[in-house]
Design goal:
With 272 residues, the chain is mainly α. The chain has three domains: 52 residues; 159 residues, no CATH class; 53 residues, Alpha-Beta Plaits (2-Layer Sandwich), CATH 3.30.70.20. Bound molecules: iron/sulfur cluster (3 copies).
């Protein structure tokens, strides 16, 4: 039974968040929302323990589709970075700001970039593409993320400064158009660089939050040097080019780890 502790623990954590937010915000939505996400995450962890090959993908599709279709399209909640700025500027601590606080700003202190491996609806689609293992060396163009980050901030700030009416409707369309653009750019880059996660590595504005916070992540993949035979397989198959055999926090591309577990599953010596 001990091996099933992680999924139970995950579910309890999410339930604690669900119940706390439900009672403090007096809104049943939070109970449903975080219970569902907690169930999806726990199911993924459970299936992973059972060595089911697509465990991560199941969680990723369950959470990603729920957020994209139910929260984004049906409930008109802009969960992109523009939505975060929008709610922050209006001073409303509601869904998008809570989502960012939990998944992308403070959560990474515990679970690193688990969001990127198990929940993001952009990567949910990109992970279907053929280049799961990057076929080309990493490019030095990660600075683009700061430009996309600034564009999102300036866009929302300009709407407020210009006192544009019906910003909520604009935010809905910004969500739809933004996602179409993200998917298009993500797919084109994946084929151009032969790397499914090229968008994540160079363009995604959310990494401006995710990378520094995940540097301190409690949950990390570590290498047992006693067992490792330096075959290099883990680093060859890592979709994010993490130098995973280096245990220091400063390891190369250390803040890129999405906890996909490909390295641990493929290590011939169970050293990770
Ligand atoms: S880097 Fe951005 S696009 Fe990629 S998985 Fe993370 S949040 Fe999603
Ligand atoms: S795959 Fe395992 S044995 Fe090979 S280098 Fe990585 S940690 Fe070491
Ligand atoms: S393969 Fe390992 S090091 Fe690379 S992203 Fe996945 S879990 Fe992290």
């Amino acid at each position: 039974m001990k091996k099933y502790f992680p999924p139970i623990f995950m579910f309890v954590i999410f339930e604690a968040v669900a119940i706390t937010l439900w009672l403090t915000k007096d809104n049943l939505f939070y109970l449903f929302n975080f219970s569902y996400i907690g169930f999806a995450v726990s199911l993924g962890v459970f299936l992973f323990i059972k060595k089911y090959k697509y465990a991560r993908r199941i969680t990723q599709l369950m959470v990603g589709l729920y957020m994209l279709v139910y929260l984004g399209i049906i409930s008109n909640e802009n969960m992109q970075i523009e939505g975060f700025w929008y709610y922050l500027f209006t001073g409303v601590f509601e869904a998008a700001t809570i989502h960012y606080a939990v998944a992308k700003i403070f959560g990474p202190l515990i679970f690193g970039r688990g969001w990127c491996g198990y929940a993001c609806w952009t990567a949910m689609v990109l992970d279907f593409l053929p280049y799961k293992v990057p076929k080309e060396p990493r490019k030095k163009i990660g600075w683009i993320r700061y430009i996309t980050f600034a564009i999102a901030l300036v866009f929302v700030a300009a709407l407020f400064l210009a006192k544009v009416g019906n910003i909520e409707r604009i935010m809905f369309w910004a969500f739809i158009i933004g996602n179409v653009v993200y998917y298009a750019v993500g797919i084109i880059l994946a084929f151009a660089f032969k790397d499914n996660r090229a968008f994540c590595k160079y363009i995604c504005p959310i990494t401006v939050f995710l990378k520094p916070m995940s540097y301190f992540s409690l949950i990390r993949i570590k290498c047992d040097k006693e067992k490792c035979i330096s075959c290099g397989k883990c680093e060859r198959i890592c979709p994010m080019n993490v130098k995973v055999t280096d245990n220091s926090r400063r390891r190369e591309n250390g803040t890129e780890c999405i906890l996909c577990m490909e390295c641990t599953m493929n290590c011939p010596k169970d050293a990770l």
